[in-house]
Amino acid sequence: MQPISDHIKKNLDIVFVGFNPSIRSSETGHHYANPNNRFWKILFEAGITPIKYDSSEDFKLLELGFGMTNIVARPTKAADEITKDEYQEGKPALRQKIEEYRPKIVCFVGKGVYQQYSGKKDLPWGKQNESVVAGTIDFVAPSSSGLVRMKLDEIVAIYKQLPDWIEQLKTD
């Protein structure tokens, strides 16, 4: 299985950070390619993207000011297959990317991703009071995996906060 390429550049509005690529993403070379993953539907329903993109169009999000990366590069069937060592390697690499590319918001697609990255255990959905990298906003959103038990409309409601934060940052 091959890792997939980040879609990232300097000064993006949002960089979405997942756990790691799925097997399907590794096979296709595109982020959130598993048909059971609701990432693309969530972004559209939350008003983040103007259309529902297909995973094969993941690179087009850069044009909208959005990027994508993962805390761990190795593809797995499920996030629970990621080892502690992989998280320990991924954490400083992710921090370095955030420091280098300076997105306005880092959206962690899954509470567990942020817990591994920040070392914090008890945290709310949405904007965090304190960011790991100064000058960025850490935003925690539910995983888009089909395995997540939250109702889709509850997940979308959390993601809907992101366009408001982008607007607020542009007016500040």
Automatic annotation (TrEMBL):
InterPro entries: MUG/TDG (IPR015637), Uracil-DNA_glycosylase-like (IPR005122), Uracil-DNA_glycosylase-like_sf (IPR036895). It is an enzyme of class 3 (hydrolase). One of its GO terms (molecular function) is hydrolase activity, acting on glycosyl bonds. Keywords: DNA damage, DNA repair, Glycosidase, Hydrolase. CDD domains: UDG-F2_TDG_MUG. Its EC number is 3.2.2.-. The keyword Nuclease does not apply. Residues 7-152 form the Uracil-DNA glycosylase-like domain. It comes from the Bacteria. This is TDG/mug DNA glycosylase family protein.
